[in-house]
Amino acid sequence: MSKVIEGLFYAESHEFVKVEGDSAFIGITDYAQNQLGNVVYVDLPEVGDEIAAGEEFGAVESVKAASDLISPISGTIEAINETLEDKPESINKDAFASWIIQVKLSDKSELSNLMDAAAYTKFIEE
Amino acid sequence: MAEIKRTCLYDKHVALGALISPFGGFDMPIQYSGIVPEHNAVRNDCGVFDVSHMGEVSVTGPDAEKYVNHIFTNDVTGAPNGKIFYGIMLYPNGGAVDDLLVYKRGENDFFLVINAANIDKDVDWMRQHTTGFDINLVHESEQYGEVAVQGPLAESAVEEILNIPCAELAFYTFKQLEYEGEKIIISRTGYTGEDGFELYGSHKFINKVWDLLIDSHKVVPCGLGCRDTLRFEVGLPLYGDELSQDITPIEAGLGSFVKTEKEEFIGKDVMVKQKEEGVQRKLVGIELVDKAVPRHGYEIVADDKKIGEVTTGYHAISIDKSVALALIDVKYTKLGTPVKVHIRKKFFDAVVTKKRFYKKSYKK
Asked: Rounded to an integer, what distance in angstroms lies between the CA atom of residue B324 and that of residue B351?
């Protein structure tokens, strides 16, 4: 069973969004890391990059395959999780603690397009 | 599309909770516990693979040896019974129809093992080239199942769990024996770079072998996921990646399996020419500085232009490095040549290396 955390927003492409004030932490869900298997590399964007909802901003690589990271929201990248450069496997250990980018939100209303925990739980069960 | 097939062990894979995906026209187990633990089990202990999707063809009759030598790049002339040859079946232009193993069972009696994805194509090709040969060619894929027992503990697993004596078998040899009233084949072969055996027999026999090995809890069920990471690390080619109708064995670095001194075989003219004059592109190893993973089809770049493509790439499990096999312009194939690999939007630094990233441990 994959873990789903209350209070986060979820995209159909299996990214989570954790909002703190005007910014948000984005990573991949526990379900996504389960599907991928052993993560060996995270292709990170640069701080300062502008990203738009629905656009690819990097990739998570497992032994099996590369999986694009799709931004669920728009904004400017404020920080990247540099620990993933040396320890990509931390995504397998705790996906929700292993955020990938921190984004300054440019349009908070986009959050309403995303799923809540209950909807996402249902989504991954289907 | 033809209907997707299942091997005789399909229900057992489902019961073990395998992730199942289509491969070569079959629904095959990709992994059970995970690619990494299964890969490590084969490198360090012992794993068992269902490879019943592989195809089998028997060639017998007065001209069997002559015929095999006609369609196959290696030379089986006068070989002792029980010997196995790896080689390639070529189109006249030197492109590969398939790569295969040829088992010499007796005088003018051969057993050919071909890739699942190529079964129909190969059998058609073989049948088209029987004219003038007094042989009997029988397609037997439906009758046979096959398992591969691989890893440093494979010999003791086969001897102790299956009670099949195999210690005396040398690398690339086989024997036929009676097992519960049925004739089976066991060979010291594999596709992992480790010591190991492949067993061929009826579906009943293969189910029995699988159950004994799994129920012993000493042998780990392994899927096609780690079969690919294992063969890749030791530089073994996969048809469709390193070898294809557009890639010749000389380009793939398999020249030692192409016996151009043989009197004749399909594709010989081109092979002779390529051996004498060289080729424009060659298969090499590539090692990345970064951890980004090069994958099949990604571009290799040097001097600001594309010089080739990745054929297979992984973040290799046994060496913890991102490496690839790549078919590139021969001008850049010297060891240590700096190149770049185009991965998504970025270009990653890499160098040309040998094709073998991990040392084979065969028992010769």
From this structure: 10
CB-CB neighbors (< 8 A) of A84 in chain B: none
Q: From CA B24, how far away is CA B113, in angstroms rounded?
A: 14
Interface with A, mutate which of B21, B222, B342, B344 (most A CBs under 10 A): B344
A37 and chain B in contact, CB less than 8 A: yes
Nearest-CB residue to A64 (from B225, B291, B322): B225
CB contact, 8 Å: B35 with chain A?
yes
Span B25-54, pLDDT tens digits:
999 999 999 999 999 999 999 999 999 999
Non-local CB neighbours of B23 within 8 Å, separated by 6+ positions = B30, B53, B116, B117, B224
Residues 186-225 of B with CB under 8 A from A: 225
Q: Which CATH number fits domain A9-109: 3.30.457.10, 2.40.50.100, 2.30.42.10, 3.30.980.10?
A: 2.40.50.100
Interface ipTM? 0.80
The confidence score (pLDDT) of residue B345 equals 87
Shortest distance, CA A61 to any CA of chain B (angstroms): 7
Confidence grade of residue B1 (pLDDT, cut at 50, 70, 90) = low
Q: Which of B217, B264, B253 is nearest to B41 (CA)?
A: B217
Question: Considering CB atoms only, which of A61, A63, A66 is closest to B229?
Answer: A63
At A30-65, the pLDDT tens digits run 999 999 989 999 999 999 999 999 999 999 999 988
Domains annotated for chain B, with CATH where assigned, are: 5-53+142-233 (3.30.1360.120), 55-139 (3.30.70.1400), 280-364 (2.40.30.110)
Helix (H, G, I), strand (E, B) or coil at B133: coil
Look at residue B11 and tell me whether its pLDDT is greater than 60. yes
| Contact between chains at A66 and B315 (C-beta distance less than 8 A) | no
CB pairs < 8 Å spanning A and B: 40
- Find, in chain A, the residue whose alpha carbon is nearest to that of B316: A63
- Domain ranges in chain A are 9-109
Predicted structure pTM score: 0.93
* CB within 8 Å: B225 and A63: yes
How many residues can be counted in chain A? 126
Parallel, antiparallel, or unpaired: how do β-strands B305-316 and B182-187 relate?
unpaired
- Return the ∠ at Cα B20 (arms to B18 and B25), rounded to 5°: 145
